[in-house]
Amino acid sequence: MKIAMNTGGGDAPGLNAVIRGVVLAASQKGWEVFGIKYGYQGLIDTKQIIRLTPEVVWDITNLGGTILGTASKGDPFKYLVRNSDGTVAETDISDKVVSNFKALNFDALIAIGGDGSLRIASEFMKKGIPIIGIPKTIDNDISATSVTFGFNTAVNTATEAIDRLHTTAKSHDRVMVVEVMGRNTGWIALHSGVSGSADVILIPEIPFDIEKVCNKIRQLELIGQNYAIVVVAEGAKPVGGDITIIEKRSDGVVRLGGIGKKVAEEIASRTGKETRDMVLGHLQRGGAPTTFDRLLSLRFGAAAVRFIAEGKFGTMVALHSSKIHAVPIDEAIGKMNTVPLDSDIILTARSLGISFGN
Fold first, then answer.
1. What CA–CA distance (Å, rounded) separates 332 from 142?
2. Strand blocks (E) in the chain
3. Is the domain of 131 the same as that of 104?
């Protein structure tokens, strides 16, 4: 077998561990593995393809990022091409990708990515490319799997930051507002906020009333706590309001952010408390993966090779409870994995007195 593999979308801790898992598992079977660099760019410009041998991946399990590079743009079905007059046009060059894949005699493609990357993989599957998907996102928003790799590391990073902010907030009697990633889901904010002893957690699944957030801060002062920690997911929004967008690209993809600053300004204005905001941003993507993410990534990579051997194409590697399963890719991308409002963690947070602004 001759396997191609790519990593698409935003980077996440554990990508290199997945690559290592695939290469070593394939090597045990005498199979060859090739890395497609920068998403699908390597199948558009075939100079961007590298041979992956055990020697290349021996020591990359603990490394953040991806040795293959990644791309959040460059969808071959909506590829942007610059015309001679300087204008940019959207063109479907997916047939070229399929042609190059076949010309290089690849037998399967392992597509590692989030919802967007898996949707592209699903389209190529319909064009005849045998595909196994591996879910990757720090946001944990892919359904059909209990968890995605990268999420645990991002939560650990956010929790450590919240821990550090407690001491400075307490020293100055300040309100500290921490904005974390997660796009349209609140998994990172919820897990890190509860673990980091936040007083308020604002997530996309629960639109918030800023006055109720301020009331929580006032109540804390009445019992002698003159500081507060507010964790805000980047996709959080007020009741009747919209999400805060930094940028909207020509392909319709938006960058979220800025809600933390708005919440901080409102808190300062309404309560008179000195308030500071902090955006963790890409710190949550970087650095070495946790033990949990390393092991999960290696398991996902090895499982993808097993599923190729079993002919389970068109599926995605998924974790259910403690076991690895193959689920249809279309099932995985059909619905976003949002935080259930009756989840045990939500109930735990409410029992601890944490406010969700509602």
1. 6
2. 2-7, 32-36, 49-52, 79-82, 88-91, 108-113, 131-135, 175-180, 200-202, 228-233, 245-248, 254-256, 275-279, 315-320, 323-328
3. yes
d(CA 5, CA 16): 12
Res 171: pLDDT: 93
Could you list the residue range(s) of the whole structural domain that residue 279 is in?
Answer: 153-285
117 shares its domain with 190: no
Yes or no: say if 18 and 158 are a contact pair by the CB < 8 Å rule. no
Do 109 and 228 lie in one domain? The reply is no
Instruction: Catalytic residue, from 139, 141, 199, 277: name it.
Output: 139
Full-prediction pTM beyond 0.85?
yes
Q: Is 139 a catalytic residue?
A: yes
Do 185 and 321 share a domain, yes or no? no
- Indicate if the pLDDT at residue 252 is higher than 70: no
Helix 210-222 / helix 259-271 crossing angle, nearest 10 deg: 50
- Provide the domain count of the chain: 2
CA nearest neighbour of 48 among 94, 109, 5? 5
What residues have CB less than 8 Å from 325, skipping those under 6 apart? 317, 318, 319
Question: Among 338, 305, 303, which Cα is nearest to 320's?
Answer: 303
For residue 297, pLDDT over 80 is answered with yes
User: Confidence class of residue 220 from pLDDT cuts 50, 70 and 90?
Assistant: very high
Nearest to 137 by CA among 336, 331, 303: 336
pLDDT in tens, 63-120: 999 999 988 778 999 988 888 787 888 899 999 999 999 999 999 999 999 988 999 9
Same structural domain, 121 and 160: no
If asked whether residues 222 and 304 sit together in one domain, one would say no
315 close to 133: Cβ distance less than 8 angstroms: yes
Average pLDDT over residues 236-265: 79
Listed residue (6, 103, 106) closest to 48, CA to CA: 6
Rounded Cα–Cα distance for residues 167 and 156 (Å): 18
> Beta strand 275-279 with 175-180: parallel, antiparallel or unpaired?
parallel
* 131 within domain boundaries: yes
